[in-house]
Write a structure and sequence with these properties.
135 residues; Aspartate Aminotransferase, domain 2; 14% strand; globular
Length: 135
């Protein structure tokens, strides 16, 4: 991602995988992450940060997620448990700016026919009792 080439406001959304770009595996440096956020703030755009496997960083310090740097509510953060627990566990999550929560709930209700409630309950317990953190 060349942050010097970001559009001037004609784009309202950018989809990025800054912690482990697919398919090459490169990461977006902190300075470029900050520039990407500044661009979103300046033009009023959202950034969808797909952090699908940030748990798997074997060298260096953990990378700060864009969502953790975002002071203006420009980042839609996506994560999954499929990589860290198992591919058959098809559960993910979104962390949204407050103004997008209700529209996302409405869209999900219209597009979805339910979630695996048992898997959600087991995962919630796995997280609550500290097992996920130990995993």
């Amino acid at each position: 991602l060349d942050t010097a080439q970001l559009p001037d406001g004609t784009i309202s959304l950018a989809y990025v995988t800054p912690s482990h770009q697919y398919p090459l595996g490169s990461t977006l440096a902190l300075e470029r992450r900050i520039r990407l956020l500044e661009w979103a703030w300046e033009v009023g755009a959202y950034i969808v940060e797909d952090d699908y496997d940030s748990d798997f960083r074997y060298t260096g310090s953990p990378l700060t997620a864009l969502a953790g740097l975002d002071a203006c509510g420009a980042v839609i953060y996506l994560g999954t448990f499929s990589k860290s627990i198992g591919a058959s566990l098809r559960l993910g999550y979104m962390v949204l700016p407050a103004e997008l929560v209700e529209p996302a709930q409405i869209a999900k209700a219209l597009l979805d026919n339910g979630q695996p409630w048992l898997e959600q309950a087991v995962l919630a317990d796995f997280i609550a009792n500290g097992s996920y953190a130990n995993h």
